[in-house]
Amino acid sequence: MNKPLTMAQTKRPGVLAVHSLDEFVIAVPDLEVAAEFYSLFGLRVEREGNALGLYTFDTTHRYGRVILGAKKRLQWLTMGVYAEDFDAFKEHFKSLGIQTVESLDPTSSDGIWIKTPDGFPVQIKACQKSSPSMPPMRTFAPESNGAGRSPNKSKVKKVHPQYLSHVLLFTKSVTASLAFYENVLGLRLSDSAGDDLIAFVHSPHGSDHHLLAFLKSDDYGFHHASWAVESIDAVGLGSMQMAAAGFKEGWGVGRHVLGSNYFRYIQDPWGGFCEYSFDIDFVPHTIDWPAANHPPDDSLYAWGPDVKPDFGLNYEASGKEFVSNRA
């Protein structure tokens, strides 16, 4: 295991806001298939009772859980807050008339549970900050000095992501979701595109350009989890790593405009995606990001292959069954 990645506990004074997407929880119809996919992707997958825990090899933090269900479906999100802000959040919810709901987690009753405008629950929990507090590590090839600098293909090591950068959710209303995560949970708009099409939010306590993003759909759902890697080589090598295992479908390699990161999306066995991401924009806790709404045609990617036809299709809502063509 690599040296554990530690996150500084940066905090913007006088601001009540969640600091991290502490964990996402999804259901899938086959845990064995899920364990294989996420292990091949480069995550550390731990069997924990009737669930799978998703970790990186650079931290002991559990970023996600996968449980058994009839189909792939987003179950809940856990958002982290600082312990000294927990009671203030209780009062904040009360002042807004936010109703609490019963815990869905059979392993824990911690925190406060509320529902989003889309109808799925969010847990608010006091915990350590797991979102990054400084720009992500970047590794580039050394300057040319009379010798070859490319990694030797026969000596390439398996790509292991460093941390969970963000999650993109399908939502019935980008406008309503944005209002909820801003006004109720204290996140802030980074950028958006189009009229109720897509929006990106970050934590004012410091996070990548987006901690969460929202894409318009007929229903809520889990589009992708984005995992940070330390080089553009790792993005390409990760793509080859998954292709060699039969997971060739996806999108990229390319570079996003909003967020600026280099990307490769790997389509999972249920039609969603996992993203290898390198060099995403970072929003320190000391600045206000210049948020703006952008033309859709000039906001998705600067370069890369054509977008996969079903990239924006919500298989959790469409009624269509995704059929994997894994080689």
Automatic annotation (TrEMBL):
What's a Pfam family in this record? Glyoxalase
Q: Where are the transmembrane segments?
A: none
Signal peptide annotation: none
Give the keywords, sorted.
Answer: Dioxygenase, Metal-binding, Oxidoreductase
Protein's GO biological process = L-methylmalonyl-CoA metabolic process
Outline the extent of the VOC domain: 20-127, 163-279
Its domain of life? Bacteria
InterPro entries with a match to the protein in the record: Glyas_Bleomycin-R_OHBP_Dase, Glyas_Fos-R_dOase_dom, MMCE/EMCE_epimerase, VOC_core
Which Gene3D superfamilies does this one have?
2,3-Dihydroxybiphenyl 1,2-Dioxygenase, domain 1 (3.10.180.10)
Q: What's an example of a GO molecular-function annotation for this chain?
A: metal ion binding
Under what name is this protein listed? Answer: Catechol-2,3-dioxygenase
Organism of this sequence:
Polynucleobacter kasalickyi
